[in-house]
Hints:
alpha/beta; five-stranded parallel beta sheet; three-stranded antiparallel beta sheet; 10 strands
Amino acid sequence: MAAEKIDYRYENGRRFHGFHEGAYYMPNDEIEVSRLDTQHQIWLVTLDNALFRAPVGGNKPISVLDVGTGSGIWALECASWFPDSHVLGIDLSPVKPNYPVPANCVFRVHDAEAEWEFGDAGPFDLIHARMLVQGMHDWRAYFRKCYNHLKPGGWMEVHEVAFPAHSVDPSMPSDTPFLRWSQLVHEGLAKGGIDGGAARDFRRMLEEAGFEEVVEEIIPWAVGPWPQDEKAKRIGVMEAANMHDGIQGITMGVFTKNLGWTREQVDGFVEEIQKDIDDPTRQYELDM
């Protein structure tokens, strides 16, 4: 592996990828890897203990590409659940899994927004991606690449958050710390050429790229235990913990690079947001 692919940079007390430096605002240190594994569990609950909705797999071997594989946990589980298949996970950072790597799972350092050259891997039966919003500058180009690297009849699946967040309580002020943070993330990403709400336009983008049988499912994630529905409440509890522990990493890069904040300002704001998330009267949601 080339040195420039494994070098890291350290900034504001966090570790970031060195390959194609600045392409993605989130850190890649152990704190973030742990958060990604927690986030994976939330997605499992969301999808009723499934890794994807696409009608592939079963007893048929499949070739799978996991884009922005992060900690690698999705790719590892996919390879384990479908042992006759081949799974390739790509990410800006080298993947160092905390779990055994099956023989049918391979990881490579690659920028999803660069040209796709995977050698003998591909075309694919399934291309999967989730939560790439802080690094994807051109979703249309990404979807075209997915279309061109799928087998005939293959499927592409993307799970993404749409900023800004909202409250289901109409009496909630719009300037609470969490809602203000969410709007600032949206504005900060926009200054870096990223549409934080792009997921709301995915159906049209996918159809323009040539995809057929496009299915859009909007699943709100509560932030906190306020929902009455048992599944939604479970997601809310998990997502509140995920946001409480991960919000500093989500915030630091965007705010310091694009909004002119200092590390001290971010840390102070993060404390406000964490207290707000912990407030049992709040009824926040993020659209997935």
